[in-house]
Amino acid sequence: MGLAGVAQVVRLRCHTQIIRQGKVIKETDDVRFAVTSYWPQEAGPEALLQLARDHWSIENGQHYRRDRTQDEDRCPVRDTFAARNLSLFRSLAIFLFKHQAKSKDAKESLPDFEGHVHRKPWGIIRRFTRRRSEA
Fold first, then answer.
1. What DSSP assignment string belongs to 30-79?
2. Residue 9 near residue 34 (C-beta atoms within 8 A)
3. Cα–Cα distance for residue pair 30/132, rounded to 1 Å
């Protein structure tokens, strides 16, 4: 094929839904291609499909939130330590959003949750500063 290390080329048909505030606002169907060093004897169609699904579950679960919702790619901070600290705060925001999803008055989307915490930060500050015996 002319590409070093490529054993297979894979064509994937993808159906994507864009969800805002719990509602589907857009659906698309497209074709994506991937290359792999796995030979057909090592990974058949089912195994390659699972590898693609695993990749996109990580992309959709973390990176998409960081890229779209938190706009991490456009962050102008270049200092390594500051960038790591901001990344930790973004991870903390995602963690807290998932944790609050269990409560009855939970926010349904990460932007809604971040906006709420931005407007009323004292609830989250109290959660981190109270003693365990008070919880």
1. EEEEEEES--TTT--HHHHHHHHHHHHHHIIIIIHIIIIIS-GGG-----
2. yes
3. 50
List CB contacts of 107: < 8 A, sequence separation 6 or more: 97, 100, 113, 116
Which residues are within 8 A (CB) of 17 and not within 5 positions of it... i.e. 6 or more apart? 24, 26, 27
User: For 82-105, what is each residue's pLDDT tens digit?
Assistant: 999 998 998 888 888 888 888 888
Angular region, 117: left φ>0, alpha ψ -120 to 50, beta rest: alpha
Is the pLDDT score of 135 beyond 70?
A: no
Q: List all residues 6 or more positions away from 39 whose beta carbon is below 8 Å from its beta carbon.
A: 7, 8
